[in-house]
Every structure is written in structure tokens, then in C-alpha cells.
Amino acid sequence: MCIFNPTVPKITPPPVKNDEGDQVNRGIEAERRRRAAAYGREDTVATSSQGLLGAAPVAKKKLLGE
């Protein structure tokens, strides 16, 4: 059991200017839009619209690890 009951003063957060928060939010949103625009469909396509044109490398293995 605690014999002492310490009183802790309430701490108030420092005031934040609205325009500073808005600038941060606008900067974060602009960076998100820039990254989304940079990520295009061409980055995810591994083949052309005609598909793979070469022959498939098919060979039967004789030993494990070949």
C-alpha cells in the first residue's frame, strides 16, 4: 500500500499553429501523390503485349541439382 499520494501537475501540450500543421499535411499529401504517379503500369509488366516470343528453356534433369 502506498502511504503517500503525490500530486502530479497536469502538463498541457504547447500550442501549434494551424498553418504549420496544414503545411506539413500538404507536404505529406504532395509526396504521396508524387510517389503514386511515379509508380506506373510499365513497372509491373514483365513482357510485351505479345507475350514471350522465345522458346521456353525446357530440359529434363538427370541428376538432382543440375
Write a concise keyword list for the protein shown above:
about 70 residues, mainly alpha
Explain the overall architecture.
This protein is 32% helix and 0% strand. The chain is an all-alpha fold and 66 residues long. It has one helix at residues 18-38. It contains one helix and no strands.
Could you estimate the helical fraction of the residues in percent?
25-40%
Through-space gap between termini: 73 Å
Regions with little confidence, pLDDT below 50 for 5+ residues: none
Mean pLDDT: 76
Major β-sheet profile: none
Number of distinct beta strands: 0
Oligomer: single chain
**What is the gyration radius calculated from CA atoms?**
31 Å
Secondary structure blueprint with pairings:
Layout: H1 18-38
Give a quick precis of the structure.
The model has no long low-confidence stretch (mean pLDDT 76). It contains one helix and no strands. The protein is mainly α.
